[in-house]
Amino acid sequence: MLVTLCLTLLVSSVVAADKESGLPKLDDAEAVKAFIDSAEVVVIGFLENEESFGYEELLAASQKVDLVPAAICTVKEVWADFSISSGTISLFRKVDNHQENLVLDEIKTLKSDGLVNFISTNELRYITEYDQVTAVGLFNSEVKTHLVLFANRGSKEYTELKERLGALAPEFTGKFLFVLINGGIKSNFKSLNYFGLKSTDLPRVGLYDKHSDMKWLLPEGEISTERVRDFCQSFLNGELKSHDQQPDVATGRKDKGDDRK
Q: Which of 62, 111, 118, 218 could form a disulfide with 205 if both were Cys (CB 3.0 to 4.6 A apart)?
């Protein structure tokens, strides 16, 4: 544990120091693994050298998306450990143990803004705020069940609940994606309506399963870590799927028709 922590701190300090002058180099598989483990989302350029196609674009993109650590690995013997066979820029994220590859041989042109978009689109964190960009990564993820926190940005509960559920999310890595939806903006009203909610009803917690196209709401009350954990576990245990009809998302009762306005 102590060794991992030291490696993580070392990687973080190297990234901070090197982003201005160049990307840090990872010389062996252990360094790559430590770098991947150092943050929720990281980007690694598996490139032959600093003159390779993609390096300057990655450097420029990393300076624009400065919350996502970036590095390069030029040791080809290491690439195979990460299923890389040619020049590739890879994004690694912990939330669903996913590796997203941008194979440079398969693209004709590459610009830093394009890489920024690649990173932003696939940058899912333990709790991801929903918008038009992150929606692509959320719905392309192999994890198809979303635990959704509806809250109005600027409310007293917003930051506290985001942090509380963000801390819980790692317990359900690979099982749920934790999503934050700001109920105070018009573009998200459709999502609220889907759950039968209005912005004045918030904060609330819901669950959406894309496989069955079903949804549930955690009954009104305190949004505590324990209640949300039990809600998630009930789904995993099959208890929320025991209804043979769509459950009423507000009460848990079976629908006899949707009469919400």
A: 218
State the amino acid at position 52 in one-letter form: S
Query: Distance (Å, rounded) from C-alpha 109 to C-alpha 106?
Result: 9
- The torsion angles phi and psi of 89, rounded to 5 degrees, stand at -110, 120
| Distance of alpha carbon 130 from alpha carbon 132, whole angstroms | 7
* Spatial strand order in the sheet of 204-209: 127-129, 177-182, 145-151, 204-209, 214-217
pLDDT in tens, 147-158: 999 999 999 899
User: pLDDT by residue (tens digit) across 192-208?
Assistant: 999 999 999 999 999 99
Distances (CA, A) of 250 to 88, 209, 220: 46, 16, 8
